[in-house]
Design brief:
single chain; alpha/beta; Glutaredoxin; Serine Threonine Protein Phosphatase 5, Tetratricopeptide repeat; 2 domains; seven-stranded mixed β-sheet; 15 helices; 11% strand
């Protein structure tokens, strides 16, 4: 290995590790449930004025008589597409008392008006070319959605996108508009969840939550059993397979084949599961299939709104395959994504 390349690769990997540890220690890396760094419940939402796709100036402060749903999105991103579709079909009674503002953080990467129109219909779409408002709100991921009360104070956030996104936003609007209390909205959500979810899936979710909690509490050795039980409870639950595969692989490279079985099953059930793609890529790299690992990680990076860990893993794969310039570039991208958001 060329000594200069070796130095560059090591420096990139070391910088990533040091930065990640430093940010975590300083409290700058929030949990995945956090969408905004700069806002807390009850704080005034920062005002701003942006150009819309129609060319007019739109200010947040002009909607103080309504609750505002402020959604930061990136055009071309699958989850942002889904956010637009969800927000364009809000409950009519809530929509009449609310204003949805879509802020496109990457307007230069295509025709934002045409992209938003396909999924968002007639939603008000704003352009944030320098990501100034994105930064002002301390957004960490896109999509990231916040609900602002009619008095201009920030109520709460919804990070990313999930199957419950629309229900979460509508629940927050009910609270923000004084139509329901937070406790009432929570009770309604729990009732709906219990009514719609099969017993096997509920059991799998409970076991998976238990396994994740044990990992968070640095009791990884005890997390394996509930993760296995989650899969046993519901073999069609992709997140359980992906999580179990990761635990097995983290425990020992000797578990690679068993782990790959779970990653493959997760991808069979959910072809866009990022964790399963990362895990399968790790196994392929262990087996010497560098090209296969790179292909999976590149797919994962496109699907993940916060891909710094994917790029770091890509750097490790390239390094293992002796492709040191590409490894250094992947580490650089990991650092840029981590710092940039």
């Amino acid at each position: 290995m060329n000594s200069a390349h070796r130095c560059t690769v090591r420096r990139g990997r070391a910088m990533w590790t040091a930065l990640l540890l430093g940010l975590a220690a300083a409290g700058f890396l929030p949990s995945t449930a956090e969408a905004f760094r700069s806002l807390k419940e009850g704080a005034p939402a920062p005002d701003f004025t942006l150009k819309s796709t129609k060319g007019d100036d739109v200010s947040l402060g002009s909607f103080k008589d309504k609750a505002v749903v402020l959604a930061f999105v990136r055009q071309g991103q699958d989850k942002s597409d889904k956010v637009l579709k969800a927000l364009s079909s809000l409950d009519e009674a809530l929509a009449a008392k609310s204003q949805v503002l879509i802020v496109v953080a990457n307007p230069s990467e295509g025709d934002a008006a045409a992209w938003a129109g396909k999924s968002g219909g007639s939603l008000t779409v704003l352009l944030d070319p320098g990501e100034d408002v994105y930064a002002k709100y301390g957004a960490l991921v896109a999509p990231a959605t916040g609900v602002i009360k009619p008095d201009g104070t920030f109520l709460a956030e919804v990070a990313g996108y999930s199957a419950s996104y629309k229900d979460e936003v509508e629940g927050l609007l009910k609270v923000g508009l004084g139509l329901a209390t937070a406790e009432q909205v929570k009770a309604e959500a729990e009732k709906a969840k219990v009514g719609d979810t099969p017993e096997a899936r509920k059991a799998a979710e409970r076991e998976l939550d238990k396994a994740r909690l044990l990992v968070q509490r640095k009791m990884r050795d005890k997390a394996l059993e509930p993760a296995k039980q989650a899969v046993a409870s519901d073999d069609t639950y992709a997140p359980a397979h992906a999580f179990l595969g990761r635990l097995l692989l983290d425990e020992s490279d000797a578990n690679a084949d068993e782990a790959l079985t779970h990653f493959d099953r997760a991808l069979e059930l959910a072809p866009k599961d990022v964790e399963a793609k990362i895990g399968a890529a790790r196994v392929k790299a262990l087996k010497g299939d560098i090209d296969g690992a790179v292909s999976l990680l590149e797919d994962a990076a496109k699907l993940n709104p916060k891909p710094e860990r994917v790029y770091y893993q890509l750097g490790l794969v390239y390094e293992k395959g002796g492709q040191n310039e590409k490894a250094a570039e992947a580490y650089r991208k990991a650092l840029e994504k981590l710092i940039g958001d």
